[in-house]
């Protein structure tokens, strides 16, 4: 673990894996909820956690780098279910990469419980983990100039849902009508770090 100062009152903590980042994020949230950590914002990423608004970043850096972070506790939050049609243009390519039939991609994906490791790229976009490493897939060699809103996609170890139309190089396996980002909703993002997610097949796959 390495803790780097960011400005006068922030700290970027680097760890070696996504699992460690999720565990550290959970531990920092626990400390804030208990009142033992005063911080304005805690932002997880793939292998880092940013803490902003600290009174004494150096003290916390020393404490974190000399202590052991406990594993993340089981998720207690309710599961968000996203209806999905497994009709993506890259479904056959993903099936070939996995060594299964296209309908088996849908079955494997829908039978997995995911959790949001972190958010980024676009408002409402969550990086979901849960698939075993053998199902990692590469990004497309040539990104698409426009991926439609609601596209369910895979890249590396992650699943994601595009909250709006944008360029993208992920492998598209399905579509959902769920609204991932709505500025009139509280909270605006349907998914946030720690959210448990399941994809529920609808229609024909």
Automatic annotation (TrEMBL):
It comes from Streptomyces curacoi. Residues 1-191 form the Carboxyltransferase domain. Gene3D superfamilies: 3.30.1360.40, Cyclophilin-like (2.40.100.10). GO terms for molecular function: ATP binding; hydrolase activity. It comes from the Bacteria. InterPro entries: CT_C_D, Cyclophilin-like_dom_sf, PxpB. The keyword Transport does not apply. This is Allophanate hydrolase. The keyword Hydrolase applies. Keywords: ATP-binding, Hydrolase, Nucleotide-binding.
